[in-house]
Design brief:
200 residues, 9 strands
């Protein structure tokens, strides 16, 4: 039996409302994939659960994590702080898993600078009109929507280094395209070998 593959960081970026969390949830049905639960200082939305969607922390605790080197990357988004805990990611990579990170373009740039073996996937809506409709459907305040759209345009302009751009028009097709891009990159960093599944 050959040894486990080298682990891979899979950065899934894109605008709020494009379906990043849903696609990551579908990928997690495969034991190769792990999910990085980010920390944030913002208040939870009604459907969000602690430890599943985010770790909800106070601003002083978040600043403590920055100072202590506990975060792989962090960013300020609309006056809230978001960050990726380092320890779970390092453990997953050591075990040969693919660690899914749902982070913004600034976080992706930080991961790139750190030199991890990574796949960078940018999820796009079919159109800006579809994005606006999805944001309204999840209860986004009308006053915030123009800023979300402007941020999407900015992030897309900065994403030239990404390995793949996936349009989430049909969920099954978007999941398949995302998986294909990640596993092609995983094979590349392992000398062309297909990924050896880590134990669940």
């Amino acid at each position: 039996m050959r040894p486990l593959s080298k682990g891979l960081v899979a950065v899934i970026a894109g605008p709020s409302g494009v379906g990043k969390t849903t696609i990551c949830q579908r990928l997690r049905a495969d034991p190769l994939y792990r999910w990085s639960v980010s920390c944030t200082t913002r208040a939870p939305r009604p459907y969000e659960r602690e430890g599943e969607h985010y770790h909800f922390v106070t601003r002083p605790r978040f600043e403590q994590m920055i100072a202590g080197g506990e975060l792989l990357e962090w960013a300020r988004v609309f006056d809230n702080l978001y960050g990726t805990p380092k320890a779970p990611l390092e453990a997953a990579l050591k075990g040969g898993a693919v660690m899914l990170l749902d982070i913004d373009i600034g976080g992706a740039e930080q991961v790139r600078r750190l030199g991890y073996d990574a796949a960078f996937i940018f999820l796009k809506p079919p159109s800006e009109e579809t994005l606006i409709s999805r944001l309204r459907g999840r209860g986004e305040a009308e006053t915030l929507i123009p800023g979300r759209v402007a941020r999407y345009r900015e992030e897309l302009a900065r994403a030239a280094f990404f390995h793949a751009f996936v349009v989430n028009d049909d969920l099954d097709a978007a999941v398949a395209a995302t998986r294909s891009a990640i596993e092609a990159r995983h094979a590349q960093v392992n000398g062309g070998e297909p990924p050896a599944r880590a134990p669940a």
